[in-house]
């Protein structure tokens, strides 16, 4: 039986311990779901207006950071404990030392009842790196990457992304013009921006690990490409997004840290006007059309489109989350199961 299947059965809903742990969290989970999905496609009224997140907490695509986070933490801790217990008595799942340490650190950070003293542990590579949900220890932490071609799996995936650029952009153009021409706003969402100003629109193909089937059906070539890169993409896991992301001129997404350092965020540049900057860990980076920009979004980062609406055009990228290249297949399976998207289904 593959590690993946064992973990899956471990967390299946007839697993008694898990059900007990989870039932206390169902209310919290509902909050997450409501928070994230109240604004669904049904609300779209074909007037060309994207659904707008109403919750003040849902400022970013990573809604798991919202007020229901405590209940989500409880469910995640339950899964970590089950995994630790299972691996202690059954050698089919062998947890790496860094995984065990990271789980323990997670308990310490999120559970004041058994808080341990972290003060002497140098758990962050930099104080500008501060993942809001899960920090995996002992992963090398570079905040940006040129190509990652030394990893053959990355090399393959980046080649597929770049060679699909033309058809992905063509599909994006169709979706975007349907939206701006008020023909079809389905699937488009406007993310609220805390204080930076401007407008930021997203169209999810995969949202917190869940496939958005209706959206995917509208861009078959892009969906086919996603299928080809899914061995490296973060799938079925709350950390995984595949999203068209559009910044209008004059938009500033203010500085923040993403959910985890276990993923590398990849942006395939689709339409890149001048005066657009992604600042990661204090360094200014720039997108290029047809190329991938890779960065660790657990570092502080902000995005700016400083062009004028009169003379510029929107900055558009396809964002896709990939596993950190140093994680083993087994570690990815464990993370996928602990942070599985079914946390949002309960
Ligand atoms: C370990 O787990 C696997 C998969 O659940 C199971 O088939 C096997 O019997 C278990 N071994 C022990 C020693 O419990
Ligand atoms: C940390 O990573 C290094 C290099 O990959 C490895 O040799 C070491 O055993 C790891 N330590 C832990 C605690 O996982």
Automatic annotation (TrEMBL):
Keywords: Dioxygenase, Membrane, Oxidoreductase, Transmembrane, Transmembrane helix
Ranges annotated as spanning the membrane: 16-39
One MF annotation (Gene Ontology) recorded for this entry: dioxygenase activity
Cellular component, GO annotation: membrane
Residue ranges occupied by any Aspartyl/asparaginy/proline hydroxylase domain in the UniProt entry: 163-325
UniProt family annotation: Belongs to the aspartyl/asparaginyl beta-hydroxylase family.
Annotated protein name in UniProt: Putative aspartate beta-hydroxylase domain-containing protein 2-like
Organism of provenance: Stichopus japonicus
Upper classification of the organism: Eukaryota, Metazoa, Echinodermata, Eleutherozoa, Echinozoa
């Amino acid at each position: 039986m593959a590690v993946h299947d064992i973990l899956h059965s471990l967390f299946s809903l007839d697993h008694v311990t898990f059900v007990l742990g989870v039932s206390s969290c169902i209310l919290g989970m509902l909050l997450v779901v409501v928070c994230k999905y109240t604004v669904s496609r049904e609300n779209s009224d074909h007037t060309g207006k994207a659904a707008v997140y109403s919750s003040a907490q849902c400022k970013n695509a990573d809604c798991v950071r919202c007020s229901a986070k405590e209940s989500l933490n409880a469910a995640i801790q339950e899964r970590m404990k089950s995994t630790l217990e299972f691996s202690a008595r059954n050698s089919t799942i062998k947890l790496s030392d860094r995984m065990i340490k990271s789980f323990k650190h997670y308990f310490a950070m999120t559970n004041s009842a058994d808080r341990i003293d972290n003060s002497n542990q140098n758990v962050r590579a930099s104080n500008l790196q501060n993942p809001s949900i899960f920090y995996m220890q002992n992963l090398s932490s570079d905040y940006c990457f040129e190509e990652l071609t030394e990893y053959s799996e990355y090399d393959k995936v980046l080649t597929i992304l770049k060679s699909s650029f033309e058809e992905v952009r063509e599909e994006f153009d169709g979706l975007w013009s349907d939206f701006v021409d008020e023909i079809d706003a389905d699937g488009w969402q406007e993310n609220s921006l805390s204080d930076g100003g401007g407008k930021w629109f997203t169209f999810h193909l995969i949202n917190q690990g869940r496939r958005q089937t209706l959206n995917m059906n509208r861009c078959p070539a892009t969906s086919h490409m996603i299928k080809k890169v899914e061995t490296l993409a973060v799938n079925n896991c709350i950390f995984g997004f595949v999203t068209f992301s559009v910044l209008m001129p004059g938009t500033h997404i203010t500085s923040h840290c993403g959910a985890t350092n276990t993923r590398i965020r990849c942006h395939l540049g689709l339409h890149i006007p001048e005066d657009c900057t992604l600042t990661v860990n204090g360094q200014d980076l720039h997108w290029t059309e047809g190329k991938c920009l890779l960065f660790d979004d657990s570092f502080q980062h902000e995005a700016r489109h400083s062009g004028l609406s009169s003379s510029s055009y929107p900055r558009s990228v396809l964002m896709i989350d990939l596993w950190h290249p140093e994680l083993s297949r087994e570690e990815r399976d464990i993370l996928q199961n602990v942070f599985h998207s079914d946390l949002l289904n309960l």
